Task: inverse folding
């Protein structure tokens, strides 16, 4: 038994349905259905506690947790499991509608009992890394760190709810071979391969109707409905929560669905919404640095960045250092544009920091016990891959939008102030005919007036050859310049205009 590790010590001899298993709810007890669909994260846990409080206010005695989840972050799954184990005033039933993998299994076994739809599946709760040959189990040291918290939590649920811990352990650790054997007296045990070889000599044999072994050394255990019932992991099967309620003589008071606010958070956390927000962010960033002081681009940046960082922080995907990385990148980029004009080391570093920080908000937090920059877990890698697709698509869309704005905004009332026009006609007649100068505008030596404070970036107003006043983006080479000060153009490089206060 020692070859199965310390947590297995009390679990390998358990029967299928232990005497400590809780009894079924009594007839007519009021129940509430709480869906737990999709990925599990910190926001899921927060909303789940709110729904349980609502169930209590409704007078429920039983909560049916309708589960259809691929899993989620380990810390959130364990937090929900601890919360369920601590509930004393409600009976909790986990109903697996379709799947409860990974974190879903951690949550499910923490409930008082599990029921499953006919084709449902549970299991596969191991942390996995991406290796050169695809998905691989963690090396021994990293596996012990990553799986330790998961195994400890599953062991707590197994002891409290009476589940065979050997089966739960086989869902987490590769290398566990599990047999279910019985003798002529009807005793049944879950044993390792070594124990199985010894017991066969004593007349023990595999239980009929289940695989032998139940789990092989090179697999992680997943269990379908029929097998889960036979093994004692599930109490029964039902077509739906309504069917389950009929079987258990429960009276469903209400199904507590997602609120409008939760649906908005879910939508904003989706790839489409985040892609649009990223496009708005990068486009507004371009406009803000091209035309500082206009206000609208800066406001759009604040709103977009608030959602892009705030929602992942709520769901447990954004860590403090990722948010700090993005903000530091913005500072670097601003220093490059306004303090040391010209796109160099600061600007490039700032852009990389912004992109990297935003990319990492797509990946869940690391597993408790794992180093921040340890092996790449499967869920982390999937998040990064998804984030790369969304980020690249958003940046390309932002580039196309910026080109469109640069071409068409100068022709639109009011918005023509947002984009610098670098070429005008040589005369009013030439402008009307569409002729374009080869020299930039405003030319070096042209005089105008600071339309905003230059800090040192800002806007200045000049008069073109048609007599029309235009406000363009400029940078002062003399530091701060108050609004209304007369300025003269010192240098023009593309859309980069450097000015200096007029002396005397």
Result:
């Amino acid at each position: 038994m020692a070859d199965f590790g310390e947590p297995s010590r009390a679990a390998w001899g358990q029967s299928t349905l232990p005497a400590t298993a809780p009894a079924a709810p009594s007839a007519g007890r009021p129940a509430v259905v709480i869906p737990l669909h999709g990925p599990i994260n910190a926001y899921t846990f927060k909303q789940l506690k709110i729904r349980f409080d609502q169930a209590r206010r409704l007078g429920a005695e039983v909560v049916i947790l309708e589960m259809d989840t691929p899993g989620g972050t380990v810390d959130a799954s364990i937090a929900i499991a601890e919360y369920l184990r601590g509930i004393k005033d409600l009976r909790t039933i986990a109903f697996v509608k379709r799947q409860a993998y990974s974190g879903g299994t951690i949550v499910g076994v923490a409930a008082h009992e599990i029921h499953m739809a006919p084709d449902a599946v549970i299991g596969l709760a191991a942390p996995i890394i991406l290796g050169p040959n695809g998905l691989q189990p963690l090396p021994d040291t990293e596996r012990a760190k990553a799986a330790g918290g998961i195994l400890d939590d599953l062991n707590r649920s197994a002891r409290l709810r009476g589940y065979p811990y050997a089966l739960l352990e086989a869902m987490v650790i590769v290398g566990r071979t599990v047999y279910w054997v019985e003798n002529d007296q009807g005793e049944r045990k879950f044993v390792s391969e070594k124990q199985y070889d010894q017991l066969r000599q004593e007349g023990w044999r595999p239980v009929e109707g289940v695989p032998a072994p139940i789990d092989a050394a090179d697999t992680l255990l997943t269990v379908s409905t029929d097998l889960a019932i036979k093994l004692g992991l599930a109490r029964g099967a039902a077509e739906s929560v309504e069917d389950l309620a009929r079987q258990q003589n429960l009276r469903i008071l209400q199904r507590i669905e997602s609120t409008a606010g939760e649906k908005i958070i879910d939508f904003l956390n989706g790839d489409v919404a985040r892609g649009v927000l990223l496009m708005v962010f990068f486009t507004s960033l371009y406009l803000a640095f091209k035309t500082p002081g206009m206000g609208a681009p800066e406001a759009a940046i604040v709103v977009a960045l608030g959602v892009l960082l705030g929602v992942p922080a709520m769901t447990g995907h954004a860590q403090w250092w990722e948010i700090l990385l993005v903000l530091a990148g913005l500072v670097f980029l601003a220093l490059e544009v306004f303090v040391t004009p010209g796109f160099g080391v600061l600007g490039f570093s700032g852009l990389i920091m912004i992109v990297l920080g935003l990319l990492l908000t797509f990946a869940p937090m690391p597993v408790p016990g794992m180093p921040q920059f340890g092996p790449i877990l499967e869920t982390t890698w999937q998040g990064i891959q998804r984030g790369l697709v969304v980020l690249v698509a958003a940046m390309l869309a932002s580039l196309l939008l910026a080109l469109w704005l640069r071409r068409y905004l100068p022709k639109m009332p009011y918005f023509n102030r947002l984009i610098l026009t670098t070429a005008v006609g040589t005369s009013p007649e030439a402008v009307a005919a569409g002729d374009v100068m080869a020299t930039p505008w405003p030319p070096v030596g042209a005089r105008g007036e600071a339309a905003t404070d230059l800090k040192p970036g800002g806007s200045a107003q000049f008069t073109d050859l048609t007599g029309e006043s235009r406000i363009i983006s400029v940078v002062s080479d003399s530091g701060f310049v108050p609004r209304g000060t007369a300025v003269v153009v010192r240098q023009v490089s593309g859309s980069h205009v450097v000015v200096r206060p007029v002396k005397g």
Notes: DSSP finds 15 helices and 18 strands in the chain. The two ends are 93 Å apart (CA to CA).
